[in-house]
Amino acid sequence: MRRPTPDLPRSREPMSKLRLIPSLAFGLILTSAANPPAPAGTPGAAQCPRGWSGSVQFTRKQMSTLSKSAPRIAGKGIQTSNSTTNYDYSARIRVRETPERRGYSVATANASSLLSFSESRSSTDQAVCSGERQPRTMSGSFTTQRETRASTPGVEANVSVTMSANGAYSIGISVPALHSTTTGSSSSSYSGQCYPKKGGTTNVPPVEGRTDPISFSTDGSHRVPLSNLDHLSGSYSKKYGNVTDTLVWDLRRCGTPLRLVDLKFEDMKFPLWEAWREVTPETTTVDGNIVRMRAIVANDSGEDQSATLMFKDRDQPGKNMPEGPAKLLKQVSFNVPAGEEKTVDFLWDTSGHAWYDDGRPKHRQSIKAEIWDNNKKIDDLSRNLNLAPRPLVLVHGYWADWSMWRTWPSMLNETHYAGWNAFAVGERPGNGKMDMGESATSLKPTKTISQNAAELTRYIRYAQEFSNAWHVDIVAHTMGGLVARQYIHLSMPIYPDGKPQVAHLLMLGTPNLGSPCADVMSAPLEAIGKPVEALREMRTGAVAQFNKHIVERKGVEFSALAGTHGVPRCYSLDFNDGFTPVPSALWTIADTARMNILYDTMASGGVFSDFVMPRIAKGPGVRPAGIKLEGPKSRTP
């Protein structure tokens, strides 16, 4: 089955000073009869008589949609139809010099295509059935699906290289037709007919066929420096109506046997562990995610080759600041059979890499892959990886709701320009909403700590799915800290990377030993049979029982802030934040701080900048509380 394609113009590069070099049975390649000589005074110009080696990637994408509606012939109804056509073609062409090394090259392609068509039609009409007085609405729905797939490994291909004396060149490719298989189905359904009509689904038997051959070439506008005529790399895209063709190439002559074809990054699609997806230059991964680095190494020679691959991280501090030294992330020894490619993987834990060790934001990671052989670097390739901080889940406390955090999203975005997301629990109530009392004077029933922890569970899941983040940080206000503690103890998962879902819990004025003011306020309500559950659960006796059972931290780093502006009250001799005494807020936590504020001002910018930021913005070299760091990373050769 052939697919009609638009006529595609081909480059008309002048063929003077060129000769056709026939290849083996796998394809052909055009090249200069003799490389153009370097202009006078140009040292090191290439004079390589050998054939090209490397790779060429071609893709074609096409999408079209059509929607229309028209009245029925009887004029009492309407018929609508919507159709979509998608076409994706990809060919990875490997170009290799023949073993004789006489300027000959061969080209083979791994090619695949998918052409899909879907159409849905519906119609409605009004008619009066026999024996009825009132018209009834009759309708029918119809769908059609078609799919043509083709995939052929190692198909013969042609690659052409034309080059003029001034270094201008063009690349052309052609890939023959592929064997294809077409499948499909159609279905129908009806309602309202005078005589019931049965719908159903019909599958179309597979039909074998062939796709159209592919030809494409660049426009000749690319230019290579005269000092290095033996390395061509670049990309070219052209659009014809709704068709977009793209060509990417990397071709070399007289180079080393091994070369780096590509360096890619992947992270896992939450919540499916090992469901890898590509992180492109236009997308971002999140601090704490595991990133799989994939270096593709090609052996263009006729002999097996072995070497060492190094993955390195180079800091890019910013404008007018020198780059830091490259740090070795991983060193891998590998072998590549003659004429083949090998993918070398490295799993990298990005924890802390959204920040420099001094707390400055770092939104881009510069990663370099290098091939070394006999203590000599023979090829390298660099790519940037965009990295955002872990999402911040904001948990309100007693007598509050999500709006207490209203200014935090803008503060986070101003702090880290890669996109630092804040998720205030309850802002989107469909994903979870806690209830700890509307105000200090409200006597309405509230949810329990356990019920609010269940709502927190849902909201953390929402934050992770929205950001594709495997790890989050929590900032919790007053009673929200008890809710977060219960969630961590009972519900928080530990992922296969060995790290807890929550990296850091920061508690602001949390009554970890209860509040004497809760004792004073709750006792009368309980006496008259109208207890407010959220208030009762913050009594000193209730929290003492809570602390007997909620003890697990599961590796989560805890930090606590105590407000000291309030004078002793509620039969307590301790300074407080207006509700929680300092000893109760600090509890048994190692990392603590005190600020001269009250509990209702703890969502201020000062708390964010002076307490939260220094504890969240930690680079990979900063030691978190209770976490033992590994030894210093190796330096590159």
- Output the CATH topology of the largest domain: Rossmann fold
Please count the helical segments: 8
Radius of gyration: 33 Å
> Which architecture of the largest domain per CATH?
3-Layer(aba) Sandwich
CATH homologous superfamily name of the largest domain? Alpha/Beta hydrolase fold, catalytic domain
Tell me the fraction of residues in β-strands, as a range.
35-45%
Number of domains: 3
Mean pLDDT across all amino acids: 86
Can you put this structure into words, describing what you see?
The protein has helices spanning 408-415, 449-467, 479-490, 516-527, 533-536, 540-549, 582-586, 605-616; strands at 18-21, 29-32, 53-71, 78-97, 105-127, 136-156, 158-163, 168-175, 179-191, 200-210, 214-217, 222-223, 231-240, 243-252, 258-268, 276-278, 285-286, 290-299, 305-314, 327-336, 341-349, 364-373, 376-388, 392-395, 422-424, 472-477, 502-508, 557-563, 591-595. With 637 residues, the protein is mainly beta. The chain folds into 3 domains: 18-35 and 49-97 and 105-124 and 141-252, no CATH class; 258-388, Sandwich (Immunoglobulin-like), CATH 2.60.40.10; 392-616, Rossmann fold, CATH 3.40.50. It is flat, with a radius of gyration of 33 Å.
